[in-house]
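We modelled the chain as a single entity of 641 amino acids. Its sequence is:
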Amino acid sequence: MKTQKMRIIKVLVIILWIQGLSFAQPLPDGISKNKKAVEFFDKAMQFYEQREYNQALNLLNIAIDKDPNYLDANDLVGQVYMEMGEFVAAEKMYLKIIKLNADYWLAYYQLAEVSFDQMNYNTAEIWYKKFLSYKLLPEKEEAEAKKQIASCQYAAKALKNPVPFSPVNLGSGVNSILSEYFPTLTADEQTMFFTCMDFRSQEDFLISTFVDGKWTDAINMGPPINSPENEGASTTSADGQYLFFTACQNPKNLGSCDLWLTFVKGDKWQAAMHMPDNVNSKYKETQPSLSADGKTLYFASNRPGGYGDMDIWKTTFEKNGWTNPVNLGPTINTPFDDECPFIHQDGKSLYFASDGWPGMGGRDLFRSQLNENGVWQEPENLGYPVNTVGNEEGLIVNRSGTMGYFSSDKKTNPGHLGRVDIYSFLLPENAKPGLASYVKGKVYDADTKAIVSTKVIIELTDLSTSTLAGFCKANDKTGKFLMVIPGNKNYAMNVAADGYLFYSENFAIKNNPSSDPYLVDVPLKKIRVGQTVPLYNILFDVNKFEIKAESNAELERLLNLLKTNSALKVEIGGHTDNSGTETLNLSLSKNRAKAVQDWLISKGITANRLTFKGYGSSIEIMPNTSDEGKRKNRRTEIKIL
């Protein structure tokens, strides 16, 4: 609490001054010479420390009656009123203290705080500046006052320019008379994990699904995820198959709170695993957020090497495991608290809570965007009334970028059910992330229609760089998968399983970005004579047969298939749509097929394993009556000989 903090500051300043240290402004003597007044003050202090505020006030009023000039007693009355939220009464008391002694500089800070809490930002700025006019102030509080002046200036403007904000309670399926907070969503926005705290302060995970326009009754995830200790603040992979979370007081922790990981096998959640010791530390790691590609985990920590108390860090999954965490730097982190990170599925919009950047008061919600050079931009405040004089934190944004979800204990919010509830709200335009779509489907055996029994890996490749943009594993019981597709780029999707030909799909969305999902079925064909597989990511310019650089990832997969299965002999078939004459199409398709053959030979595949043939537009997969039909028919196809 602010008032408790100021009480500590006052005691610290007096100690430093007595010890003769030069970095503390001496306070005027606030002690009374009236023994009875001091006696009542000492008793009041005991009640104050026990948060028995009414009893403390009664005794303080007696002390002040016996000595009206008793500064310490008047000061404590002001602090009690602030604790009770009686800001007008607190303000009157601090104004009285200044009349008693104009050099009681701590009162100016407290007047600034109480004015700020009442959203009287112009007045608060005056008092902060008066406080700063004194020399040799405590360093941290001096920095706080300077930061608060910037917040006063921001908040005064924000009040005059409110953003649209109409929070909606998620209802009794998610919320209860208990506290629900820290939600996390799957990319299809159909499943929500969240933390629930009961009346014993026990934290567990619950899960709810979105059916027929509402959230179903939440189910406790139970063991082995939930335990007698506290679990909370989770993040899920795009498909809901992995869950990273914070566990506190766990005997296996290195610090007070550590990061843990669990995953689904079939339909069962597995026992949680402690994240590696280079990620966790003897300090506090909490509030994880997983990037859509599953490769980067953002989290908050007070570990050394940061810029403030709680900072935002990230670790990346590479071949040898999770890397040593990296601080996001001073563009994001401040000398104060920066936490509750959420990385959107667009891969470049980071939302977080901070009391270090100019805001409305307490912790505000901010968004920073990653530019083309991989540098985080200065955070933008989400504005008033999304942010208020209180604490806002724990924001997540849905994949389509239209809706925000957050937790609040404000009884003024509509539909309030418990101590803390989860709400949704339409995101203001200035706070929306970039576009992101997803592909969702089911993998099965093309012949038997049964779920593929071997491990099925789905990879998404950025065609412009041939780098992995995402990966996931199909559920080994249902065959289902879900993977995010960030907007504004062209991607190749490949599905592979041992003993099967890989499946190829192309998402050309660079010039037509959208948040609309792609729903696909993936029939995998076993490797045997006569099987064919279309390759949609071997690309050519119109009426050209030179292979484009964006084809590299697909060609490498074809090369790997032939190297892994050294007995395979294949026909490379070229196919076109029905644009142009058939004579031209036959020639074009033949040359394209030969270009693929030549590339494979250049990589070491012997020529006697390869043949090529041009089919023109003679073999349709779909009618050539639509753009999608023509796209499907323009393909390179592999046939097992």
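As a brief sanity check on the tokenised model: The chain has four domains: 2-160, 168-431, 435-526, 528-641. The first strand starts at residue 168 and ends at 169.
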